[in-house]
Design brief:
17 helices, alpha/beta, Rossmann fold, binds adenosine-5'-triphosphate, six-stranded mixed beta sheet
């Protein structure tokens, strides 16, 4: 197999952080090369260097026969390197074919004037959609597609512009099992066509199924490259984390069945997405919500949090009916919501880590409008340092802008924000998406500690093993309502899926 790209001894320093320290990595034509590492290990930084977004501090990048000290986005693009982010970048209000050619519309000259070459667009669109197995008309609006179809559009877009290397960052994080299966079929097709795939994932079980080689980064350093099919997962974990991972299983002994800390009665949303939902949460209990992607679990959490209009029903927190017409009221009432859409609703982009963590206690404890003069900067700094240490947030300092953190560390900062607000009821929606295996366990332990301290915990997850290992009871959600609630002792992946799809 020929080497398409080789990164040699790359170092990347940011102020206060060494993101990559002497890292080498290469990609062959027709292979899937997985990249593993804990949150903040340097995976995204390495990929951004390959895309020409970041300039390495030192080291070289070899493309075919030429060697570069840095790539620019145009060199990277011209060579055929394409990066597909976890949060897809397709444009909803354009059609599939318009998305495929955004920024590079092919033109022809008619009467001496350049006009869009619609025939070529249609022809190329049909050909690349067939390559990714997307059975949709090219004129379909992207807003009408599912997440997995949008992802296929992104891959098709890479193919339409002659990709030689496609980097996929956590491509299965929002897909159902069936969609993952389809994606793997597409990846195998692309391999067969000689395309090199870089596959970033925190899901270890995917590695032997889809990858040929796997490289591991730890704290910005290159650990090694292994055969993806034969290397035992424990060896990969050990090289990635450097310690044994324990799993927190609920024992249920601390659940007080007689004390209800949170109750929802006959809750419905105005838009009909949530239909007459009732449940109770007991002291010390973690209640999980299983269901298919799109079954409406997040919508239920939004209604509870006042972010989606309620038509009927009531909510009780610690025995008192609470009025939650908006998220502001939810915060005031003591609710916390770690949303699944981290980038858009998780944090304030222009704020530091410390500011993000300390903003809610301030909002919660003041009757006044938030104004800069009222902020206590010493307290803010103290909050930042306290939670950075408590949740082991990997950052140069709590004063760093939150957008500079790796995805997983941003998630920890979001959890810190709600812990700092001393909330009473925590809603965790897909809390470990994009989170590494070590940090996942830390998040489960935080959830268990909160439950033990008498806080209510609701957890939505599409990872059934995670729900089974963390939750005391699991509500199976289907088409906007709860179809069944199973105690952990009776719940299995099979019976949950059976109820969710019946
Ligand atoms: N623009 C930046 N400015 C400062 N530091 C940065 C910047 N980008 C990344 N870093 C730091 O570099 C380190 C590596 O981050 P990177 O995003 O590459 O990690 P990752 O392995 O992709 O993690 P994750 O699995 O959480 O996405 C982190 O400590 C991060 O805070």
């Amino acid at each position: 197999m020929s080497t398409l790209v080789a990164v040699r001894n790359v170092v990347k320093r940011f102020p206060g952080t060494v993101a990559l320290q002497d890292v080498s990595f290469d990609i062959n034509a027709g292979e899937v090369h997985a990249l593993l590492g804990e949150n903040g290990a340097g995976k995204s930084t390495l990929m951004k260097i390959l895309s020409g977004i970041y300039e390495p501090t030192s080291g070289t990048i070899e493309l075919a026969d030429a060697s570069y000290e840095r790539l620019t986005p145009s060199i990277s693009k011209a060579f055929g390197i394409r990066l597909i982010y976890q949060e897809l970048s397709v444009i909803d209000h354009l059609s599939i074919e318009e998305n495929l050619f955004v920024g590079s519309l092919p033109t022809i000259r008619k009467f001496g004037v350049p006009v869009v070459d619609s025939a070529r667009i249609r022809q190329t669109a049909l050909s690349v959609l067939a390559r990714v197995g997307l059975k949709r008309h090219p004129a379909t609006l992207v807003s009408d597609l599912s997440i997995s179809e949008k992802q296929q559009v992104e891959i098709a877009k890479a193919l339409a512009s002659d990709a030689r290397i496609i980097i996929m960052d956590e491509p299965t994080s929002s897909l159902t099992d069936e969609e993952v299966h389809h994606l793997f079929t597409v990846i195998r097709e692309l391999k067969g066509q000689g395309i090199g795939i870089v596959y970033i994932s925190h899901k270890l079980k995917e590695i032997p199924i889809i990858a040929d080689r796997v490289s591991v980064l730890k704290d910005g350093r290159y650990v090694g490259t292994f055969d993806a099919k034969t290397t035992p997962p424990q060896k990969l974990v050990a090289s990635m984390v450097g310690r044994e991972i324990e799993h927190a299983r609920p024992d249920g002994a601390r659940v007080d069945q007689d004390k209800v800390v949170f109750a929802v009665e006959h809750l419905s949303s105005r838009d009909g997405r949530v239909k007459d939902v009732s449940f109770e949460l007991h002291k010390g209990e973690i209640l999980g919500f299983a269901g298919l992607i799109g079954s409406g679990r997040s919508e239920l959490m939004e209604v509870i949090f006042g972010a989606r209009a309620r038509s009927e029903g009531q909510i009780e927190l610690n025995g008192k009916v609470v009025s939650i017409p908006s998220p502001y009221h939810a915060v005031k009432a003591g609710l916390a919501f770690v949303t699944e859409d981290r980038r858009n609703t998780g944090f304030f982009h222009n704020f530091s880590i410390a500011e993000n963590i300390s903003i809610l206690p301030f909002v919660k404890n003041t009757r006044h409008q938030v104004s800069l003069e009222r902020l206590d900067f010493a307290e803010e700094k103290a909050f930042g340092t306290q939670y950075k240490d408590k949740l082991r947030i990997r950052c140069a300092s709590p004063q760093q802008n939150i957008t500079e953190l790796s995805g997983g560390n941003q998630q920890k900062a979001i959890i810190a924000k709600w812990l700092a607000a001393e909330s009473d009821l925590f809603i965790f929606d897909e809390p470990t998406r994009g989170i590494d295996i070590g940090a996942k366990t830390e998040i489960y332990q935080i959830m268990r500690q909160l439950a033990d301290a008498g806080k209510g915990i609701l957890m939505v997850s599409s990872e059934l093993p995670e729900l089974l290992s963390v939750c005391d009871r699991i509500a199976v959600y289907k088409e906007g309502s709860i179809a069944a609630v199973l105690p952990n002792s009776e719940a299995t992946e099979e019976n949950i899926m059976h109820i969710a799809t019946a």
